[in-house]
Amino acid sequence: MLRAQAQEKKQISKYDKYCFKNVKLEDAKERIKKGEKYVIRMHIPEGTEIAFDDLIRGTITFHSKDIDDQILLKSDGYPTYHLAVVVDDHLMEISHVIRAEEWISSTPKHIFLYNAFGWELPVFAHVPILRNPNRSKLSKRKNPVWASWYLDQGFLPEAVLNYLALMGWSHPKQKEIFSMEEFIREFELKDVSAVGPAFDVVKLEWMNGEYLRKLRIENLELRIQNYVGRDYDRTIITKTIPLIQERIKKLSDYLPLCEFFFKRPEKYELDLSEKKGLLKKIHLSLQEVREWKASQIGEIMQNLAKKEGVKNSEFFMVLRVAITGKKISPPLNESMEVLGKEECVERLKRII
């Protein structure tokens, strides 16, 4: 009823202090003795203001007419969040309360309780909420906001932390990539912006790719092995790392690019049925390669393409799809070197 009336008048919905104004304390005690259920509320004095200094937003002031007499103890005897959080933070000797801007309206209630208990106030800092690139609110119902999703997608924890550090804060030297140690050294809470930053997964993918490219080969090899599982030959993973390190943005990009190293294609992204004549000639030429190196493979294939009067772009696309099943793959000649002569010849033989 009160909520509906307040909404109709476009006012803040709040308790109307009915019991405080109309029920005498002695009567209330008597009713409680008789077993009547009750709650305990704050009593915010009328005509007053509660102000506090927010480390990010400066001085914020609330008038008592806009602060509800919040329930502190429910009828079942259990405390509400507002009482519990203040007591818990005090007993835990919390010095800084850092939380989202959505909690600003609750802060005067908490300050009221700190003052009522005679406790020292912590420092308050309300950070902006993350938003989508279109400025809509990031929502757990619509967006992946749990850490496990990013790990499953192949993001590195250090890259995610680096990106999150830039959500509302800028490095003094305008750097985008920095270590956690450097972040700790440079970060000042007062420098956080009050404006809600945009969380852009595309930008995060770029940053994750930068981290992947900076990894040592053996480190990236271990990360990929742990990500794809032990069913994939580590020797092949080791050989393929140099071919894809500059190309992937997430660990999950590895298998779509490299699965053909571990098993033969079952389908092809190009119809090769009309290319069998060319593939037969490629098959014969590859059988004659003595030193199975990328440079030799490339030279012999280029000579064959020239001899057959086929453009290099068309020739190597046919060969790429025949070997990998895909139109896009790691460098073809190097990939064929890793696969080995016998395997490449056999893959062509299966098609022709």
TrEMBL record:
Record's keyword annotation contains ATP-binding: yes
Species the sequence originates in: Candidatus Roizmanbacteria bacterium CG09_land_8_20_14_0_10_41_9
Pfam families: Anticodon_2, tRNA-synt_1c
Residue ranges constituting the Aminoacyl-tRNA synthetase class I anticodon-binding domain according to the UniProt record: 228-352
Assigned keywords, A-Z: Aminoacyl-tRNA synthetase, ATP-binding, Ligase, Nucleotide-binding, Protein biosynthesis
Domain (Glutamyl/glutaminyl-tRNA synthetase class Ib catalytic) ranges: 7-206
Alphabetical list of Gene3D superfamilies matching this protein: 1.10.10.350, HUPs
Any one Gene Ontology molecular-function term assigned to this protein's record: ATP binding
One GO cellular component, as annotated: cytosol
Gene Ontology annotations of biological process type: glutamyl-tRNA aminoacylation
Protein name: Glutamate--tRNA ligase
InterPro entries attached to this UniProt entry: aa-tRNA-synth_I_cd-bd, aa-tRNA-synth_I_codon-bd_sub2, aa_tRNA-synth_I_cd-bd_sf, Glu-tRNA-ligase_bac/mito, Glu/Gln-tRNA-synth_Ib_cat-dom, GluQ/Sye, Rossmann-like_a/b/a_fold
Family from the record: Belongs to the class-I aminoacyl-tRNA synthetase family. Glutamate--tRNA ligase type 1 subfamily.
